[in-house]
Amino acid sequence: xxxxxxxxxxxxxxxxVYVVGVAQDGVLNAFTATWLTQVSxxxxxxxxxxxxxxxxxxxxxxxxxFSVNLxxxxxxxxxxxxxxxxxxxxxxLKGVPHRPxxxxxxxxxxxxxxxxxxxxxxxxxxxxxxLVIGEVIDAGVQRDEPALTLMDTGWxxxx
Length: 159
Description:
Shape: globular
Radius of gyration: 15 Å
CATH class: Mainly Beta
CATH superfamily: Electron Transport, Fmn-binding Protein, Chain A
Number of domains: 1
Order of helices and strands: HEEEEHEHHEEEEH
Strand content: 35-45%
Structural class: alpha+beta
Mean pLDDT: 93
Number of helices: 5
Distance between the termini: 13 Å
């Protein structure tokens, strides 16, 4: 297999750009994610991939909840704010208007829409990212507009 071809092809898979919020024992964090998809209508389930060696993944494992904040096409800077790990960026939610959702996970006031999930399953023991299956238990729409995608940002994540 041509490794460069594999990388190029995998980077062509369309992805949205989201800010995922996590909460555990009163501690909040958020990170930018691109690997998210709906996997069931009934119940409403989504699959989210989270880097296994991240602090946020440990929080998801412990709390079993997360929020997904959907961003509009013009919100690349907001997505960028949450890219760096918390240890490098400090408290990432400081100065970013947010509120606790039904699960306690942060909902960004500037997000165009959001939903919250309770974790139902965690899989992928072989990969560097865990596959987290969450059931959507709450949702809200602040405004209806086109969503930010990875292609809009010029970033690459995958391959």
